[in-house]
Amino acid sequence: MGADWKLSGLTVIAEGADKKKLLEDIHAVFKAGEITLLIGRNGAGKSTLLETMAGIREIETGTVKLGDDDLWVKEKRRRRLNRNASLRYGIAMQSSESQWFAATVRDEFMYSLKPFGLDDESAAKRIEYALAEVGLPQETMERDPWTLSGGQQRRLSLACLLACETDWLLLDEPTAGLDAVGIRRLCAVLEAHRAAGRGAVVATHDLDALLPLADAVAVVSGGTVRAAAPAAAVAHAAAVPQALRTLAELRAVAALPPLEPAPGSGAPWPGPRETAAAIVAELARRAKERDAVVTGINGRLANAPESRNDKSIPLVNTEYSQDKRQDDVGFSGLSAKPASTVTNDQKTHVAAPALKGPKLLRSDRFDPRAIILVYLFLAACLLAQKTAVELSLAALVSLFLLAPFRALIWPWIRVIRAYAVMILIFCVIGGIGFQPLSFDLDKVGPIALRFGKLLLVMVLSMPMLKLMTPFRLQRAIEQTFGFLERIRVPIHSFALIVTLIFRFIPLLTGEWERFAKLAHARGKAVTPLKTVPFKNLVPILIPYVRSVLRLAEQMADALEARGFGYKKRKPTYAFRLRFGRADAAMLSIGFVSGSLLLFLAYML
Questions:
Q1: 327, CA 20 to 30 Å: which among 48, 124, 514, 538?
Q2: Cα torsion 411, 96, 48, 55: sign
Q3: pLDDT (tens digit, 9 = 90+) per residue, 30-66?
């Protein structure tokens, strides 16, 4: 019998400036030898929960244990993955194509098996068995994974997990893209896996196929495990009446279709028109209830003195419940959580919707032209500094200007640190003298000054990618220089090229992060997340280039499909950029700061 998963106080926060909580205060136990389904609406947090259990998402607070082993081990100032725990599970991601990078299916298998240290004969037997279990022919071994159909890729991702023979399978939408035969094979694989005393956690919307297999069902909603079904409630759900009763119980807390058949259809699911009507009615009902809650709260706020301590106001719908506590560590009951209460301190939060992030950091806050003008002027002022004192003052001014945007710079902290180390190395090498052996500080100064100015210019540019979208940048170029089209200057083509460059930089970064995720999910690396182990840098270089070229090809196909490259007519613009108060403030602060630097440089 394998070990249980134990999640305690688990909280995961999204990357970026908004710091949205993807998971909050999760307490749960997934028992070995059981199949647990994760169900819920799109965006509820099912995939995030699986990725967190697989160690490819950072944990803000809480613990994740597999048996007695912590998934994360504290090491000095940071945490690293526990390799002993990571070898006991495998994850198949929601998009199967996101986990391929090798040239052949055989290489994909070997990459997954490499952390287990198998000899060639054992590895070959496992691969042959896994292919047979999922129904893929041996001829598939020499094919490029990207050339397989969606269903074949889904089967291959499962086969890679089966070949590893791990205790736990973490599957994200495993039935997506599978035909009826593929789904039957998946169910057979899960049954055999459970019979061997192993466990599985499966995020799915396909309850028709997987509910009869489940030992427990957990409902994920709003980043929390809100309710769960005990094993007894679904252990014998293979019979259709029992399955339908279970579905009826889960309807209240998950995104499931109505149970009643459509009139005259004889089917347990409604037709498209009935579904649409039901959705409209449900949305109207929820909006009415929400308005009633907000109206009642506002009435109390208007009539009650501030010093008065009102009694808590119960919410009429658990959909708006702010209570994130999970009272039971295990899955012990199937019921919606009771309505939480709203106190005086929470009233304004209910009435006002949450923003997606600080207004200053939103990509539509500033006109791209204002951002570029300020950056070019400040960069020129920074490069004009001539002494160490001037550079120090320029650094202080730059830090002051970048302080409001520090959340956008933080993801680049590793790049900044690496550049600073490079400067230090160059200074040490440049200051060494050999006749005789000595160290000359006078030689170090010019090196530190030149590279220091470039560092400040580089850091100053880092928030730009987040403060404007590629489309708004393209619009800014077209709107500013569009008049040059009259003299046959290809401004629109130039704007498109600039936009693609800015669009491709995040794609390159995202592709590298994908390889880092593969290194942890399949390669069982224990290095910090978003980093590739040093020993794997050379082997993944060619696959990374191939992947980037594939992205470029897909982008070219998309441009051709949207008509780029054909005879252009007069363009129609969806909007026009205009300078606002925020842009005026940015320009004023930028030019005043740059002028101050130039003045100090002249005076000193």
A1: 48
A2: negative
A3: 999 999 999 888 888 899 999 999 999 989 899 999 9
Q: Which helix (H) or strand (E) segment is 80 a member of?
A: strand 78-81
The pLDDT tens digits of the residues spanning 121-179 come to: 999 999 999 999 999 999 999 999 999 998 999 999 999 999 999 999 999 999 988 98
Tens-place pLDDT, residues 425-451? 999 998 888 878 888 888 888 999 999
d(C-alpha 133, C-alpha 135), whole Å: 6
Token pair for residue 191? 């049954």
- Cα separation of 148 and 538, whole Å? 26
**Which structure tokens are listed for 241?**
């009446």
Among 564, 547, 559, 460, CA closest to 507: 547
Amino acid present at 411: P
Strands (DSSP E) contained in 537-580 are none
Span 450-504, pLDDT tens digits: 999 999 999 999 888 789 888 888 889 988 988 888 888 888 888 888 888 887 8
Give how far Cα 151 sits from Cα of 105, 135, 148, 176, Å.
Answer: 15, 11, 8, 8
Residue with tokens 């830090």: 399
- Average pLDDT of the residues in 24-31: 90
- Which one-letter DSSP state was computed for residue 419? H
pLDDT value for 415: 87
Among 352, 324, 357, smallest CA distance to 20 is for: 357
Write the CA distances from 102 to 96, 110, 515, 533, integer angstroms: 13, 10, 11, 17
End-to-end CA distance of the chain: 75
Query: Residue 242: is its pLDDT beyond 70?
Result: no
How large is the angle between the packed helices 368-383 and 581-603, nearest 10 degrees?
Answer: 10
CA–CA distance, 287 with 13 (Å, rounded to integer): 28
Axis-axis angle for helices 470-481, 491-521 (nearest 10): 170
CA distance 170 to 157: 11
d(CA 144, CA 103): 5
| DSSP H helices in 169-239 | 180-195, 207-210, 231-234
Residue 584 — very low, low, confident or very high, per pLDDT cuts 50/70/90? very high
**Among candidate residues 68, 80, 83, the one with its CA nearest the CA of residue 6:** 68
Whole-number Å distance between alpha carbons of 157 and 109: 9
- The Cα–Cα gap between 226 and 27 comes to 10
Q: Cα separation of 63 and 529, whole Å?
A: 17
DSSP element (H, E) containing 220: strand 216-221
72 forms beta bridges with 81
What whole-number distance in Å separates Cα of residue 54 and Cα of residue 333?
26
Bridge-based pairing of strands 35-39 and 199-203 is parallel
pLDDT value of position 397: 92
pTM: predicted TM-score of the whole model, two decimal places: 0.70
Cβ–Cβ contacts within 10 Å for residue 602, how many? 9
| Residue 165 near residue 126, CB atoms below 8 Å | yes
Alpha carbon distance 285, 353 (integer Å)? 19
- pLDDT category at 188 given cuts 50, 70, 90 is very high
User: Among 546, 523, 547, which residue's Cα sits nearest to residue 536?
Assistant: 523
